[in-house]
Amino acid sequence: MILNRIWLGMFLIAFIVASSKLFFLGDVEIFESLVNAMMGAAKTGFEIALYLTGIICLWMGIMNIGEKGGAVFLLTKAVSPLFTKLFPEVPKNHPAIGSMMMNFSANMLGLDNSATPLGLKAMKELQELNPKKDTATDAQIMFLVLNTSGLTIIPVTIFAYRSASESPTSVFIPILIATFIASLAGLIFVAIQQRINLLNKIVLAYIGTATLLISLLLYFVVQHPEYNEVISKVGGNFTIFLIVISFIVLAARKKVNVYNAFIDGAKDGFNVAVSIIPYLVAMLCAIAVFRASGTLDALLNGIKHLALYAGITATEWIDALPVAFMKPLSGSGARGAYLEIMSHFGVDSLQEKIAATFQGSTETTFYVLAVYFGAVRITNTRYAAIAGLFSDFVGIVSAIFISYLFYT
Known about the structure:
- The protein is mainly α.
- It has one domain (2-7, 24-407).
- The protein has helices at 2-25, 30-68, 71-86, 95-108, 112-127, 138-148, 156-161, 172-194, 201-223, 228-253, 258-275, 277-292, 295-309, 316-319, 321-326, 331-345, 350-361, 365-375, 384-407.
- α6 packs antiparallel against α18.
- The protein is globular, with a radius of gyration of 22 Å.
């Protein structure tokens, strides 16, 4: 419903603004610009989908190898001690733990379309433990907030979008840091509400270790900015390929036919790539006419003037704000906003890299809340929305800070 109103509003506002320019300013070319922008956006949406097809097939194939080889099972087993502390009301061997871990794993790899079915399965299993069926439990809220914080280790989809870049994975480290900070903020917010002791030695062992590693990495890049590009390219690519090799080796040890497993996963990837074409075209066209009418630029220029008035001279992040505005509402909307920024400013531009970091470090909070809670008919979501939006806000601020550290 919200996305429908936004999409409709973009076209109506673009028409009103363009009509005003025609009748009051005598701009006889404005509607030609709108139509050309709309047609060009439709073409761009299809071309992007073609780029995406191969990359998504690749990573869906790798994911299928990892699943059949037991990598997800090992990951679940590794985090089980942490989950028992964060979800105290969920029995140790309950099926929901495995489903939640599968969902988190898909999110960590940036596979949005794969994560949703797994998340719905986890939510339904958690609902079985819910004594008051119309009210969200602490476990459901913790799961939703960790989900909406969007912890991403390998942003596969973003790599696919950036396939035309000289280094598609150069955004890897910035996204990793920003999304970790957002997830940590969401976890702390919910833990305070639920009075979960994060100073427990098991929790500290997991979260403390991850925080220490991220902090050391962030400290190093601040002290030695000349190594930022090397760290992002070498460290990111090495980590990604190491994970791929680990998936393949684990599967081979279990006598899995890795080639067939890859092909089966890749077939699903093709279906995913084709299925997103209508969504890409719809949102790209709406944003294109919104920009062509001059409305989007006027809005962003207003924010830019306020930033300059406040003494903020680095304003490239403002051009990437449409992604930050759209992401809590809709994944496809944010995807369209990001691709429109890529098309407008060019791949590897600072604006595009910041937008990519926004895309990777925030999540579709309202969409997830509506779909996941709606699937189990929960109407009283308590503080889940506030916690999710808080996590998104921290992710956006972190993404801006980290982007200027790495990309400038």
